[in-house]
Amino acid sequence: MNLRRHANLLLTSCFGCLSMQPALAASDNYRYDTVHSQIVFSIDHDGFSRPLGRLHIAQGSLRFDPDDWSKSSTELDIDMRSLDMGDASWNDAACKTSLLDCKTYPTAHFVSTSVERKDDTHGMLHGTLTLHGVSQPIDMPFRVNRIGKTIYGLHTVAGFSATAMLDRTVFGINGFPNAIGHSVAIWLELEGIRDSSNNDKEHP
């Protein structure tokens, strides 16, 4: 066997070994940072204004694949009793049985069904929202703001902004139809902290 042929066999063998190594998954798992994640909504008040309210994310998880967004998914719970309209009496009124009925339905739940990528930073999240005991499909355009280490390098964080529109009446929230609008605008500012189990994972 000549030297050139021997070298070619060695190279072929080495590349064969490399190709047999399992590919590392590109998806990362995150848990929502409930301190830095916000849900803000707005609804018409008798044509005079569109007051803002806030809700707290109780818990949630996110799986994001930066190379193939269709492999991404998310699920989260919203604490309806955290409703904050800026006034305690107003909060209580909104949580009564005529509206959100927060005692009977203390949690709203969202689970994604698919994710579409539109461009490098924008996509569309499709899923199911269960609110007031009723489940309905909902679509949310979103933006990937940044994925990277925090300023102190303690965590890897994925940040997203999303919007949604829903009709409260399709969820059976029908109280005060002449004073409160049907259409609800929603803004979500979300941060997910990458699970510690991913800390040693390197992407190709």
Quick description:
The chain is mainly β and about 200 residues long. It is about 10% helix and about 50% strand. The protein is elongated, with a radius of gyration of 23 Å.
Describe the protein.
With about 200 residues, this protein is mainly β. The chain is built from two helices and nine strands; from the N terminus they run αββββαβββββ. Strands 1, 2, 3, 4, 5, 6, 7, 8 and 9 form a nine-stranded antiparallel sheet that branches. A hairpin with an 8-residue loop joins β3 and β4. The two termini are about 35 Å apart.
- The dominant shape is elongated
Percent of sequence in beta strands: over 45%
Uncertain residue ranges = 1-25, 199-204
Main pleated-sheet profile: 9 strands, antiparallel
Radius of gyration: 23 Å
**How many distinct beta strands?**
9
Q: In which range does the helix fraction lie?
A: 10-25%
pLDDT averaged over residues: 88
Topology:
Elements: H1 3-19, E1 28-32, E2 38-45, E3 52-64, E4 73-84, H2 88-94, E5 107-117, E6 122-131, E7 134-149, E8 156-167, E9 180-194
Antiparallel strand pairs: 1-3, 1-9, 2-3, 2-9, 3-4, 4-5, 5-6, 6-7, 7-8, 8-9
What labels would you give this structure?
12% helix, mainly beta, 9 strands, nine-stranded antiparallel beta sheet, 204 residues
